[in-house]
Amino acid sequence: MAMEQILELLQDEAKLSANQLAVMLGETEENVRKAIARYEREGVINGYHALINWERTETQKATALIELRVSPQKDTGFDEIAGRVMNFPEVESVYLMSGGYDLAVTVAGRTMQDIAMFVSKRLATIDGVLSTATHFVLTKYKDGGVIFNSDYEEIDERGSNLCD
Amino acid sequence: MIDYDKLMNSTAKRIKPSGIRKFFDIAHEMEDVISLSVGEPDFHTPWHIREAGIASLEKGRTRYTPNRGFMQLRTEIARFLARHYGVEYEPESQVLVTVGGSEAIDLCVRSLVNPGEEVLIPEPSFVCYVPITQMAGGVPVIIETGPENGFKLTAEQLEAKITDRTKLLILPYPNNPTGAVMSREDLAEIAQVVERHNLLVLSDEIYAALTYTREGHVTFASLPGMWERTVVVNGFSKAHSMTGWRLGYAAGPKEIISLMTKLHQFAIMSAPTTSQYAAIEALKNGDEDIAYMRGQYDMRRRLIVDGLNNMGLKCFEPEGAFYVFPSVKSTGLTSMEFSEKLIYGKHVAVVPGDAFGASGEGFVRISYSYSIKHITEALNRMEAFLAEL
Question: Looking at chain A, which residue has its C-alpha nearest residue B322?
Answer without folding.
Answer: A164
